[in-house]
Amino acid sequence: MNFKRLIIYEAFARAYPGEKGKKFDSLMKDLERLKGMGINTVWLMPIHPTGVVERKGTLGSPYAIRDYYEIDPLIGTKDGFKRFVKRAHELNMYVLMDMVLNHAAADNVLVKEHPEWFLRDENGNPTRKVPDWTDIVDFDYSNGELRKYMINMMKYWVEEFDIDGFRCDVAGLVPLDFWLQVRKELDPLKRLIWLSETHDPYMYQAFDITYDYDGYYKFRDFIEGKGSLREYVDFLRMQDHMYPRGYIKMRFLENHDQPRIAKFIEEDSLIQWIAFLFTFKGVPLVHNGQEYGLKEDVDIFNEYTLPFPMEENRISILHRKLAHYRYGTGVFTEGEMLFVKNDQPEKVISYLWRYENRYILCVLNPLLESTKVTLDFSGIWESACIHSKNVFNDEIVRVPVKNSRATVEVGKEPLILSFVLY
């Protein structure tokens, strides 16, 4: 499996429109739209029943799980989930379950059945490492029986429902040796996709993909005026020295833990960052509603319904176009990405993909200032003539390279040039 081919969509089943208890039907109907948008992997936020004790909000956090073997009746049934997975597979799409193994709801069925499986305070009561997470208690992975339970539970969802992988919540708070044990037990069942919600380099020992939280925080610093574009890009360069060769990061502009990107930046700048999301190395994540430029944050604690279906707009059309382009070229999934230096690093991001004799040059201008930028192709080309349509707007662009330098004009639209050199 080439994990670089994944384009992931985060779906909050409870927030989908439709009758309570039949959310899988709504999700199943949405699969056609997602497939048409270029999505090939659906990550479902937790679908289990939520806790009641110390519940946050009226419905509770989906990350405070009451029973790992059941499905939230507000969402649907096991039969409904099976139908959803089956339909996704018919469309050649993958389904990832959200697996929350660091902690459980304070009234999880295991608290009474196996109190010895939980972290204890000085008074012997179940407790947690993060004080603000008042609706949950943490597991104690020094207990071998707990480990067996969790492994068997994960096997159950694979064997009974044929899911394709797991997004593992706060995976870095769970011992690495447990994740290695999980892989040893589950790998013989099926080649699953393992996504870790952590950016720790050592987690690649057990996971295929990790979050780009370290890069995201630098990105947020830039869009909030706390850092420069140069600092962000320099950090992305540094990641190549921080992570193992061939590492895959899940890149994102927003998710259920982070605010809507459209709240922070104007639409033209958002266009630039969507182009970045789909053309930079890693695996892109699209969060429920991001594809329409929604500004209202998803409420994961209370009644909330996504405003679907929605009319196509400039943002959704671009998501679809670039997702299909990314998946279809082969260059992003098989090739190598090189950073290209430019003479305006405080304003412009530039990088080049190459695969055999095929190339894709990306020059992005998040600050939207119309300007001429000189690119430095030292070590790549001494001379060349790039003649290509801009993938973004189909305009013909000619870029002569002399003495390893080339000048391009940038403005409000991304420059994405796909070409062949012999």
UniProtKB/TrEMBL annotation:
Database matches in InterPro entries: AmyB-like_C (IPR055067), GH (IPR017853), GH13_cat_dom (IPR006047), Glyco_hydro_b (IPR013780)
Spans traversing the lipid bilayer: none
SUPFAM superfamilies to which the protein is assigned, alphabetical: (Trans)glycosidases (SSF51445)
Protein name as it appears in the record: Alpha amylase, catalytic region
CDD domains per record: AmyAc_arch_bac_AmyA
Family matches, as SMART domains: Aamy
Record GO biological process: carbohydrate metabolic process
Domain Glycosyl hydrolase family 13 catalytic: 6-326
